[in-house]
Amino acid sequence: MNRKKYSETMSNARVVEIAKNIYWVGGKGQQDGLYCNPYLLVDEEAVLIDPGSVLDFTDVLGKCLKHCTSGKN
């Protein structure tokens, strides 16, 4: 798998608020077309549910950190 293309696809997917303080922080893999579906719950602490594979981790973590430090939560 081309890590760069996969990362670009994951990184370009936006964070989607699906309910109050619950966000989808996943994306679609370039090669296999499968979605990574992690969710971020933000309350007094942030909890990441189903962070995905090792290939997804850097991008998912980046989205979580960007969202949690943006002041939008």
Properties at a glance:
73 residues; alpha+beta; 4-stranded antiparallel β-sheet; two-stranded antiparallel ribbon; 2 helices; 6 strands; globular
- What low-confidence regions span 5 or more consecutive residues with pLDDT below 50? none
Strand content: 25-35%
- The total count of strands amounts to 6
Strand order, largest beta sheet: 1-2-5-6
Tally of separate helices:
2
Distance between the termini: 34 Å
Write up this protein.
There is one protein chain. The chain has one domain. It has two helices and six strands; from the N terminus they run H-E-E-E-E-E-E-H. The strands form two sheets. Strands 1-2-5-6 form a four-stranded antiparallel beta sheet, with no helix packed on it. Strand 1 and strand 2 form a beta hairpin. The mean pLDDT is 79.
In a few lines, what is going on in this structure?
By secondary structure, this protein is of the alpha+beta class. It contains two helices and six strands.
How do the helices and strands line up, and which of them pair or pack?
Layout lengths: L2 H10 L3 E4 L2 E3 L2 E2 L6 E2 L2 E4 L3 E4 L4 H15 L5
Antiparallel strand pairs: 1-2, 2-5, 3-4, 5-6
Helix pairs in contact: 1-2
